[in-house]
Amino acid sequence: MNAQYFKTFRKELIEITHACGYEHPCQFTMEDIEINADDINFSHNISLAYNYQKDHVPFMSMQSLKECQYLGGKN
After folding, report:
1. Cα separation of 31 and 47, whole Å?
2. Range of the domain at 34
3. DSSP 39
4. Which residues make Cβ contacts (< 8 Å) with residue 45, sequence separation at least 6?
5. What are phi and psi of 36, to 5 degrees?
6. What distance in Å separates the CA atoms of residue 50 and residue 52, rounded to the nearest whole number?
7. Domain count, the chain
8. Rounded to whole angstroms, how far apart are CA atoms 72 and 50?
9. What is the tens place of the pLDDT at every residue in 7-61?
10. What's the rounded Cα separation, in Å, for the pair 34 and 61?
């Protein structure tokens, strides 16, 4: 894969995130995303389709994410 693909993907993901009213993709919940199963008229959110609940990811600011030790920050 080339770097341009990832740059474009990142840009589009951020645009979708902002269009949904979020600042960062970590703010999406399992109820925000639906998948189609078998038929276009048969869709479920991810939490129902896979019986999975995502752990809450706290979001205070972009700066706090930048400093997050789990994402390579220095804290």
Report:
1. 6
2. 3-71
3. E
4. 30, 31, 32, 33, 34, 35
5. -90, 135
6. 5
7. 1
8. 30
9. 899 899 999 999 999 888 888 888 888 887 666 667 777 777 777 777 776 778 8
10. 26
